[in-house]
Amino acid sequence: MALNRDFIGKTYPPSAPYEVSRVKIREFAAAIGDGNPLYRDKDAAQAAGYPDVIAPPTFPIVFSLQSGGEALMDPELGLNFAMVVHGEQRFEYVRPVHAGDELVMTSTITDIRTAGRNELLTVRSDVSTVQGEPVCVTYNTIVERGGAG
Amino acid sequence: MAATVKYDQVEVGQEIPAVDYVVRRVNLVMYAGASGDFNQIHWNERFAKMVGLPDVIAHGMYTMAQAGRFVTDWAGDPGAVVDFGVRFSSMVVVPDDDQGATISVSGVVEEKLEGGRVVIGLTASSGDAQVLSKARAVVQLV
Q1: pLDDT confidence bin for A13, thresholds 50/70/90
Q2: B65 falls within a domain
Q3: Which residue of A has its CA nearest to B79?
Q4: A23 contacts chain B (CB < 8 A)
Q5: What confidence score (pLDDT) does residue A106 get?
Q6: Which residues of A touch B51 (CB under 8 A)?
Q7: Fewer Cβ within 10 Å of end Cβ, chain A: N or C?
Q8: Does residue B41 form part of some domain?
Q9: A128-149: b or e for each residue (b if 16 or more CB lie within 10 Å)?
Q10: Residue B123 maps to which CATH number?
Q11: Which residues are in the FAS1-like dehydratase domain (chain A) (predicted)?
């Protein structure tokens, strides 16, 4: 089923804050097999000039999956989750995420388009601290296989 | 901290040697838990085949994470990465055996930008398939 184009430009307000913990960063680093001490050792991170352990570049997917998902759950959009695969992903960083960050994000559906038989949808999420400091911007493009019929 | 690679010592066209990253089923289970992406195509062979896939496939973000690790290990500081984007062009099929699959990542310096930044073009393959395309990272060097 074609996705509802009325959703282009729709913005979803800031989510509940996501608290970044050392434990979660360590778990994520272990899962991707990355032994970088800046992800595990607070002293090493502070010696490198960071306030606490930092997170790997793809870590923001952890909270963007949690809150960006809301935009996609709206039944009026017409998205069939069983046919969804990840198409593209991009991160623009102001600075690395670090333990102790309390992050909120505002998500906008920036584009819905047809490519062959697939429907493509792009969500931009602006991530900042609860104090209003910008941290990163994520762009997530998902593909609904066969969605364009 | 800052990158350990010096801008002046980097040339356009310079290659960053390939690194192989092995991915086994256990890595996908760990990644599902750590990322919160519990889509069954990443751990349930029966389900994966039911929806037309050859076998369990790796999360796209797992592959992107390996490309990210390649860049941060080269740069010397994860915080030096200022932009990182990929397109997922093919899947990484992960068989249920001790070998798993191998993701091979390599890079090339594509462009030197103002302000000490460089664009790294990334290639990632598994078997015969290019699993990422349009994969590039912008890194702040010193």
Answers
A1: confident
A2: yes
A3: A96
A4: no
A5: 92
A6: 82
A7: C
A8: no
A9: bbeeeeebbbbbbbbbbbebbe
A10: 3.10.129.10
A11: 7-136
